[in-house]
Structures are given as C-alpha cells and as structure tokens.
Amino acid sequence: MSKKVQKIDALVIGAGFSGLYQLHLLRDQLGLNTTVVETGADLGGTWYWNRYPGARCDSESHSYCYLFSEELYKEWEWSERYPQPDEIRAYLNFVAKKLDLRKDILFNTKVVSAKYEAESAKWVVTTESREIFETKYLITAIGCISSANIPNIPGLDRFKGEWYHTGQWPHDGVDFRGKRVAQIGTGSTGIQAAPVIAETAKMLTVFQRTANYSVPARNGPLNAEFKAYVKKNYAELKEIIQSTPNGHPFRISSTKVFDVSEEDRQSIYEAAWEKGGLQFRASFQDLVVNKQANDTAANFLKQKIRDTVKDQETANSLAEIDHPYAAKRPPIDTHYFETFNQQHVSLVDLRKDPIVEITESGIKTESGEKQFDVIVFATGFDAITGKFFQIDIQGAEGKTLKQAWAEGPKTYLGLQTPGFPNLFTITGPGSPSVLCNMPVPIEQHAEWIRDCIAYMEKHEFMSCDTDVESAEKWVAHVNEAAAATLLPTAKHSWYLGANVPGKPRVFMPYAGGMVRYRAICQDVVDKGYQGFVMKKRDDESSNKNTSNDFSAAGKITSPGI
Ligand code: NA7
C-alpha cells in the first residue's frame, strides 16, 4: 500500500560526493526543503559499493575532495597519496557531520520511478518500499560508474563456486586463502585487484581480453612535510586543480613530443614513470591528440612491460596493446606486471583463447577447462547511462529517458534532456565527468544547478527544460571535441559504450576539458540561460535562445583527460 505523499522542493538521488554537496547548496544556501535518497545503507556513493581488494582512487588524495570550503579542506588530513575506499568514506562522513547532512538523507531507499506531471510541474518519485515524493526539482547524483557490467557468459548460473563483481563487493571481504581464483578483466579495477588477490590466493588466473597500459601509482604514506604543504597552499592548489583541463593537481606540459630530442624525451618519460600516477599523461601537451606523438609514450610503456615480465609469452600478451596510450582510461598500479612473475599467477589471453562457457567447476576456453573456486568479475560498468535506465524516468509527454536516449544520450551540457523539465543530471552524459578528477566537475555542476534553481525561484519560473535543437547542437559539439582527440580511436572503450553488448556506440563524456566546459556553462548563464526554456504558470513565454555555437570558449586546443 502506498504511503503518504511527501511534498518537498528538491529530491536528490544518491549520497556520494555529488548528492552531499547538492544537499548542502540547496538546503543551506537556498533554503529549499531538500531530501537525499540513497540505495546503500550509508553514504559514499560509488565508494559505498567499491570495496574490492586493492581498491584505491587513482586521483591524488589532496585533490580528491571538495574545494569549496577552505576550512573543510584544511581540517581534513589524508594519510596516503591515493585514498582507499575506507578513507574516502571517512572523509565524506567528516563532511556530512560538519554540514549536518545526515538528517536529510534517507538510506536503504531505492528510487524505482520518477514521473513528471506537466499540469503541476512536479516530479512524482516512487521508491521500492512505496514511499512517494512530490518534488519540484529532481537531481540525479547517481555516479557514472555505478551500474555493474556482469557479462552474459553462458553457464554462470551453473557455477558451484563463489563469484563476485568488483563493484558489488561483500562488505566483510572475501577470503581467498587456499583458493583457485579466476579474475576476468584488466581495466583499472582488475589491474589494482590482481596483485592483492595474488597475495593470499592459492592460484590466480587473469583472463585478459584487451591488453592495457599501466603506470606505477607509487602510492605511499604522506609525510608531515607534504601534509603541511597541502594546508599552506590551499589557494594555489585550488587554482591549479580548477584551471587544468582534467581537474588534477598538476599542469599538463606545454611542450610537444617532437619539440625535444629522442634522448630528452626518454628522460622525461623515465622521470614521469618514477614519479608515477596519472601525471604520466601530462608529460607532453600533444599525447592524446597526435598519434605519432602518442606512439612514443606507448612504446616506452610497452617496453616497461617487456622489461618487467619474465615469461616471454605472457609479456607478449600483456604488451600487445591495440589502442593509443590514454585513449582508454589509463590505469595506474602497484606491482601489477610484477605479479605475473609469481609461480601461482598466470594469464589467459582471450584474443588467442576465448572463453566458451562457465562450467560447474570452472571456466572453459577453446583450449580446455580450468577449475576455480572463485570468479572475480572485474568487468567494469554500464557506464554513464546504465544507472539512469534502472529507474523508470518519464518526462513531460510520457516519453521515458530510455526512449529519449535510445540512440545514445542527448543532453544539453550534460545537465538537462529535452522533455524532462526540472530534471538536472550531475556529471551526466555530455559533460566532462569521467575524463576529470571527479570532485571538480561535481562541484561545478552542483553549483551551476544551485544557481539555475535560485534564478528560477527568484523569477518565479515553474519549469526549466531544454529543447531538441540545443541538445542536438551540444551532442554535435561533444562529438567534435572527442574527434579532436585520439579517444574515439579506442574502439573497445566504455567511453563509447562498447563494453556493453547492444549499447549505442556514442562517445559520451565531453572531451573539451573542464576549463572550456566551465566557460561554456558560464556563457550560457550570462546570456540568460541560453538554450534553456523556462516557463511561468499560464505563461508560454520563455527565455529560449538557441543560437549558441559554443565558440565563446575558444578553439579546442587542449582536451580534457
Ligand atoms: P573497465 O575499464 O571497463 O574494464 C573492464 C575489463 O573487463 C576490461 O579489461 C574488459 O575488456 C573486461 N571485460 C568486460 N567484459 C568482458 C567479457 N565479457 N569477457 C572478458 N573480459 C571482459 O572497468 P574497470 O572497473 O576496470 O574500471 C572502470 C573505471 O573505474 C575506471 O576506468 C576508472 O575510472 C575507475 P575490454 O577492454 O572491454 O576488452
């Protein structure tokens, strides 16, 4: 039986970085009656679920946090260069406590449907336990990589052992001692997980479909000197983080690959390799736009694999990489390639020996069957759009979001979809999102949404939508930005939706860089919310104006990631 309808101003779905900040902005700055609903039993968002062995954020801790408050920034102290999920959750708990957020968050509350009622200009949102909310504003803060992709390999239902997806890891952990473990997948997650699983498993077999580059993370505890530096240089660090295309705390070199001699280039790569982390990508300005330039980095990294892995056949399988460096999300690791030198660790190259089926007791490839006690699916996510489709979202004319995005997501700035008024998507498709250090686009989005809502309230607009023409122009611009880089040349990337069978092949994140994106969003506001259609009750007039060609932010020269 349905419960009483709860009437609120704003409903935010998700209690991760995005949802927490959006709650603070709407409730504490605009005074709106705001509720956050969260499927998980506690806050953390992606980091509530992500607890697999070796899980760690690839962004450096002093940049993987909110920047809006100097006080919060300086009060929190990270312990390691890259934070583990526990520490990220502790940080979010610290923020929630400081801002008194918990009292407006409903945990264990999964949204199943959201329907827009044009007459009242309200969203009616229903949860799994039949709670109903009526809200003017609906904001998705559901994360980009939160919908697990479990491949449809025949026979999984027959498997008698244990199996897990890394993104839905048991909170009590998994005991690998004495077990024969299969790990499928060698993306960022698999590359983090394999060395840690190998520490306790009796046997680890890694099934690799696409070979991947990886740079050592060089993780370690942060010393007192670095911690003091971070606190002292808040303003400077914030400036760097917010003025780089990818939101990381380092600048991308302005030097091009062929501006330096071969010898100097190798020294630059060696230094970046020693320093470790995603910073390797920042060694040269043109690494992700010029294939010949990229080849020099790719060859350097492939040689590192061959230098590390002793078994020739395994080294070949790991180093035969089919895409440019950083055209797929570049992993960073702690002793990943070294792991294959251990006696009890082996690699199956699925390009040569594909999986046929999962059996009761293991995995059968074309060359035969291997027995396993545990299968770990490090097979990624139905990224960016997958989570949206788990909710039945119906817009103004009864059209579902699934229908609206059937050929790929069509948004304006990644913030709104035509026909879905007052629905705002934090780090939605068509925004820089996953090509950045996530808290940076999250803060920008949440603040933009706050300002847009404040504008609507001030001018008594009842709804804000975008139109098809604006969304089409934006999608064309998202494609243009991607085409200016090497990113779309990696045909099997999840940026393109290629990891999920049947998903439209569309480049989803905005590759023009965070700085450029921020400038475009501001320009749209300065022009009176250009491309958005705001309406008053019984008033058909709006401030629609769709002449934007996004040129105000200049030519795309330095793409994001
Ligand atoms: P990714 O990067 O999507 O990696 C998934 C891995 O799983 C990748 O190696 C895939 O191979 C492999 N995969 C997927 N489906 C299959 C099947 N059916 N058979 C064999 N192998 C398969 O996900 P991650 O979790 O590693 O990382 C996601 C993001 O989290 C990461 O980019 C960071 O932003 C944090 P493929 O390459 O598709 O051939």
Segments where pLDDT lies below 50 for 5+ residues? none
Major sheet size, sense and barrel closure: 8 strands, mixed
What is bound: which ligands?
Answer: ligand NA7
Counting H and I runs of at least 4 residues, what is the number of helices? 15
Shape verdict: globular
Strand content: 15-25%
Mean pLDDT: 95
- C-alpha termini separation: 48 Å
Radius of gyration: 24 Å
The percentage helix is 25-40%
Provide the structure class: alpha/beta
Assembly type of the chains comes to: single chain
Secondary structure: number of strands: 20
Put the structure in a nutshell.
The chain has 561 residues and is α/β, with parallel strands linked by helices. 30% of the residues lie in helices and 16% in strands. The longest helix is centred in the last third of the chain and has 20 residues, at 439-458.
Provide structural commentary.
The protein has helices spanning 17-29, 46-49, 70-75, 85-98, 188-200, 224-232, 234-243, 262-275, 291-308, 312-319, 336-339, 401-404, 439-458, 468-483, 514-526, and strands at 5-13, 34-37, 105-106, 111-117, 122-127, 132-140, 162-165, 180-184, 203-208, 215-216, 332-333, 345-349, 355-358, 362-365, 368-371, 374-377, 392-394, 423-425, 463-466, 532-535. By secondary structure, the protein is α/β, with parallel strands linked by helices. The strands form 5 sheets. Strands 1, 2, 3, 4, 5, 6, 17 and 18 form an 8-stranded mixed β-sheet that branches. Helix 1 runs parallel beside helix 13, helix 9 runs antiparallel to helix 10 (312-319) and helix 13 (439-458) packs parallel to helix 15 (514-526). The longest helix is centred in the last third of the chain and has 20 residues, at 439-458. The protein is globular and about 75 Å long. The structure holds ligand NA7. Ligand NA7 binds at residues 145, 151, 184-190, 207, 209-210, 329, 350, 378-381, 434, 492, 494, 499.
